[in-house]
Each structure stands twice: as structure tokens, then as C-alpha cells.
Design brief:
0% of the residues lie in helices and 51% in strands. It is mostly beta strands and 128 residues long. It is built from no helices and 11 strands. The strands form 2 sheets. Strands 2, 4, 5, 6, 9, 10 and 11 form a 7-stranded mixed beta sheet that branches. Strands 1-3-8-7 form a 4-stranded antiparallel beta sheet, with no helix packed on it.
Length: 128
């Protein structure tokens, strides 16, 4: 198992930036594909970004492409989400997820159902 804790959320004005962090503990971090998702009340959890176990391969949701960047530090057991040019519609609770795959491929998991482990979430609010 892996335990995940997100941090870095907060209130920011439109056009601003935030950097979210996710700290993982437990089993070998490099066994997991990592992802960021977000959710607003009454809506399904939405894929934001994902990264392969090596950090080489990434994938982004259409609404955040060219504004958000995901990366990971396998020595520190951390994954990050750099969010730039934030918009009010980016307001949501952001969740870090882990998909156990092992070190077998550069697969990036874009679907909620693929993730067995989640953090508690961190609120991001973007004011207009």
C-alpha cells in the first residue's frame, strides 16, 4: 500500500500560479503511476495530469494543457503539479492518486477507476 498526502492548495487570483505537492509513503514509490485529478461538488472526478513511473511520460487533460506541468522526484517520493495561468474554472479539490503498475512500461493512467490509492485532497480556489 501507499499513503498519499497533498499540500499546496489555497486562494489565488486569476492568472496566478500555485504548486501542489503530493508526498507518498509506504511501498516503493517507483511501483506507481501517479496522477492528479480534481473534483467540484456534484461533478465526477476529472483527470488533470498523469506521469509514468520514470517521469519520462506525461499526459494532460485538455482543459489544462499548456498551463499545468506534472513532475515527480523518485528520490523524495514526491509528485508535483505546477499550475500557471489559473482560471476561475480551475477551482476544485485536487487529489493525488497512485496506480500500481510496477516498472514495466511508460504507461500513464488517465482514468479514475485505475487508481486504488488517493490522498485527502487540497482545495484550490481561483478568484476572478
Amino acid at each position: 500500500q501507499v499513503q498519499l498526502v497533498e499540500s499546496g492548495g489555497g486562494l489565488v487570483q486569476a492568472g496566478g500560479s500555485l504548486r501542489l505537492s503530493c508526498t507518498a509513503s509506504g511501498r516503493a514509490f517507483t511501483s506507481y503511476v501517479m496522477g492528479w485529478f480534481r473534483q467540484t461538488p456534484g461533478k465526477e472526478r476529472e483527470f488533470v495530469a498523469g506521469i509514468s513511473w520514470t517521469g519520462i511520460s506525461t499526459k494532460y487533460g485538455d482543459s489544462v494543457k499548456d498551463r499545468f506541468t506534472i513532475n515527480r522526484d523518485n528520490l523524495k517520493n514526491m509528485v508535483y503539479l505546477q499550475m500557471n495561468s489559473l482560471k476561475p474554472e480551475d477551482t476544485a479539490v485536487y487529489y493525488c492518486g497512485a496506480h500500481e503498475l510496477g516498472q514495466v512500461s511508460e504507461y500513464v493512467a488517465p482514468y479514475v477507476y485505475e487508481y486504488a490509492y488517493w490522498g485527502q485532497g487540497t482545495q484550490v480556489t481561483v478568484s476572478s
